[in-house]
Amino acid sequence: MEKKVKHKEEAFLQHPVLFIAVLVLGFVLMDPFEIGPVGGIEFRPVKHDIAPYKEVMGGWPRDNESQLGNGKLEFVDEVFGPESLEFDSFGRGPYTGLADGRVVRWMGEGIGWETFAIVTSNWSEKVCARGVDSTTSKQWKHEKWCGRPLGLRFNKDSGDLYIADAYYGLLVVGPRGGLATPLATHVDGKPILFANDLDIHKNGSIFFTDTSRKYNRVRLLSRYHFYILLEGETTGRILRYDPPTKTTHAIPSHSFCPSKSIFDTSVRFGLMKYWLEGPRAGTKELVAHLPGFPDNVRMNENGQFWVAIDCCRTQAQEILVHNPWMRSLYFRLPIKMKILARIMGMKMFTMISLFDENGRIVKVLEDRKGVVMKLVSEVREVEGKLWIGTVAHNHIATLSYP
């Protein structure tokens, strides 16, 4: 019996190609040196049903003139990762949250940018202020200490500024600025891991997003949000804070922009509407398929919605979305993310799209060559101008519209 087993082992070793293939497969599955893009994390891809690639991309209008690339770069190396942009009731601004933990506002050419608010008393210039390096890995280990204000919204009646901070949850600061006051850091006794964006309902309730109940931003920083995108995990949620009762609870769905309804952006390449009021309250519907990864949604004065999109989907990507086991193997390969993305045909660029309330496309603007920015977070339309924010670059972009 021993001779027979030994003979089989020797026969296996005599096929070096098979032997090497088994070793490589074992290495990929185990990734002991955590070389692959998802090395060192509990990566469990989820299957999603998404609209067919040809259906979405075949019917999506393209900006062949790449008009967004004609935008103007503003405040270069003066603001660091300005994701969300806001203006107060007096028209002052923009206000924006920075990667160094501050909320700043523009005071005009004579004064420039001034610090308006901070989200934690931990903040100090010595520890947190790293200038243009704030959007690089040099800031990552300090973010959780210094804060990372993302979504901003003013209550136009009170002048209060509400802040969604990735580490400190939902906060508010008065019209004069200063140290923000925490409003919501936990839900049902569990911490809010990744507060991202928010909006204010007409009744005063604050709706804000918790991007993930599995990952906080500090765990995602080395690849930013790629863990969530690659895994397709769907633990993100909308939270509602009610000022009169000072309570926070979750509502079904996953993002925001409330008036009578909420528009939802998610990793499934879709724009969802969640109804808050009326006969359809508590229900949701898909109103538009998207060609890429959406971020913030902002409404203009006409009741239309600008959606920031990092474009675009590929056919290879669709196969991976439908087959989680393929994603699990593919992203454990000891190859850099940039190369793996290139193999899938992905060449990311910025797109912003305007939708009406029913999800019909009104306008599409692209920046295919990354002239203005390669990663877009938000679009605000103010008095004939688009203000475009980004979590990754050290500038703001503007473009006349229409």
UniProtKB/TrEMBL annotation:
This is Protein STRICTOSIDINE SYNTHASE-LIKE 13. It comes from Hibiscus syriacus. The keyword Cell membrane does not apply. Belongs to the strictosidine synthase family. The keyword Signal applies. Keywords: Glycoprotein, Membrane, Signal, Transmembrane, Transmembrane helix, Vacuole. GO terms for cellular component: endomembrane system; vacuole. It holds the Pfam family Str_synth. Residues 196-251 form the Strictosidine synthase conserved region domain. It is found in: Vacuole. PANTHER family: PROTEIN STRICTOSIDINE SYNTHASE-LIKE 13, STRICTOSIDINE SYNTHASE-RELATED. The chain crosses the membrane at residues 12-30. One of its GO terms (molecular function) is hydrolase activity.
